[in-house]
Amino acid sequence: MLADLAMRDGQRVVAFDLFGDLDLRRSGARVVACPGGGLAALVDAAVEVQSRGVVYGASFENHPALVARLAKRHALLGNAPATLRAVRDPQRLAAALRAAGLRYPRTSATAPAERTGPWLRKPLRGGGGTRVRAWRGGRVPAGSIVQERIDGLACSVAAVGDGAHAVALGLTEQLIGRRAFGVRGYRWCGNVVPPRLPAAERDALQGQAREICSFLARAFALRGLFGVDLVWDGERAWTVEVNPRPPASLEAIEAAHGAGAFAAHLRGCAGELPRVAAARDGAAGKAVVFATEDVVVGDSERWLERGARDVPHPGERIAAGRPICTVVATAATPEDALAELEERAASMRAELEPGVEVAAGG
Fold first, then answer.
1. For residue 133, what are the β-bridge partners?
2. What are phi and psi of 359, to 5 degrees?
3. pLDDT surpassing 90 at residue 123
4. Which of 23, 44, 148, 287 could form a disulfide with 190 if both were Cys (CB 3.0 to 4.6 A apart)?
5. What is the separation of C-alpha 171 from the centre of its chain, rounded to a whole number of angstroms?
């Protein structure tokens, strides 16, 4: 996604990726794939390449030491390690938001004395809802927190900060735990623009989201693109988490509004707020399709023609629970966009073959 957004804005790109998917290799970017590696392998490769700057994506917000390594070699186009540590600390985030009169769920690293209402157990270094579970009491494992679960619609806002102020690029509804895309529970699998809410509620949420983003940029000196996960309870927006790097919702926002997100990111990193064009009519969505069983990919070349993204190579084996590809749709309404995403996911899933291992012996 980041490589695509950057090249749309005329940038020359070297993409460091753990998969080296088919569409990335056809994109025109120079691709350095580190299959079987992790984030550290990407950094090892990136520090050997000369560039005008480096932009990091998902999961790096949980690893400020790796971001610090990148910053030693390249101009960092994003938030510094100290910013990541501050805004990803639930206690510091809670204290700042509550002092400003903004809402944040009760959160604790130990079993809370007050047990009213439902609670969730989350990893401190998590993302995308992975390993989020209902908490019903007992010891809180090291590296985890428990957080009050707020009833409402899961949403997110993508914004650009200049270190003191912020502008919102787009507001989305998060797709959580949808079986049509192969996930359950609290796992994220996509976004729809705009949220499926009555117009009055959508406007109220938009206003509160802008206030939250502006406050966070000022309180934590956020620069460039960042995302805020929210829950809308019908009247109030509750901040749940801040992702201080380009958020995954940008694909849906760009499809709906043509936001010019990468250029906006560079301006924010330079200390300037971008101009945000008025939102266009219509809706869009993106969804990540996950494998519900071990599968083998067939002729995925055809998926490129149908606009799929993060496309695996023909013959690639994908284990149950892992992402297969990303689908994007535009439509007149968010309901139509979601229906189109579900139809595309089903169509691609029907083309997969069971990943059966055959053993031969004498």
1. 121
2. -105, 135
3. yes
4. 287
5. 13
Q: How many angstroms separate the CA atoms of 233 and 239, rounded?
A: 11
Q: What is the rounded distance in angstroms from the CA atom of residue 322 to the CA atom of residue 290?
A: 6
| Mutual angle of helices 261-269 and 250-257, in 10-degree steps | 120
**Residue from 300, 338, 341 nearest 318 by CA:** 300
Who contacts 5 (Cβ-Cβ below 8 Å, separation ≥6)?
246, 250, 254, 261, 262
Rounded distance between C-alpha atoms, residue 250 and residue 227, angstroms: 9
Residues 70 and 48 sit within 8 Å (Cβ to Cβ): no
Determine the distance from the C-alpha atom of residue 235 to the mean position of all C-alpha atoms in its chain, rounded to a whole number: 25
| pLDDT at residue 277 in the model | 74
Beta-carbon count within 10 A of 142 CB: 7
| Three-state secondary structure readout of 57-118 | CCCHHHCHHHHHHHHHHCCECCCCHHHHHHHCCHHHHHHHHHHCCCECCCEECCCCCCCCCC
Tens of pLDDT, residues 55-90: 999 999 999 999 999 999 999 999 999 999 999 999
For residue 275, how many other CB atoms are within 10 A of its CB?
A: 9
85-108, pLDDT tens digit by residue? 999 999 999 999 999 999 999 999
Would you say residue 358 has pLDDT above 80?
no
Decide: residue 217, CB within 10 A, 0-12 exposed, 13-18 middle, 19+ buried. Answer: buried
- Across-strand partners of 168? 159
In degrees and rounded to multiples of 5, residue 350 shows phi and psi of: -65, -20
- Give 222-264 pLDDT, tens digit per residue: 999 999 999 999 999 999 999 999 999 999 999 988 778 999 9
Write down the pLDDT at residue 266. 96
pTM given for the model: 0.94
Angle CA 209–176–308, to nearest 5: 100
Is a pLDDT exceeding 70 seen at residue 172?
Answer: yes
Query: For every residue of 126-157, which 3-state class applies, written as one string?
Result: CCCCCCCEEECCCCCCCCEEEEECCCCEEEEE
Q: Taking each helix axis from N to C terminus, what angle separates 199-220 and 90-99, rounded to the nearest 10 degrees? A: 110
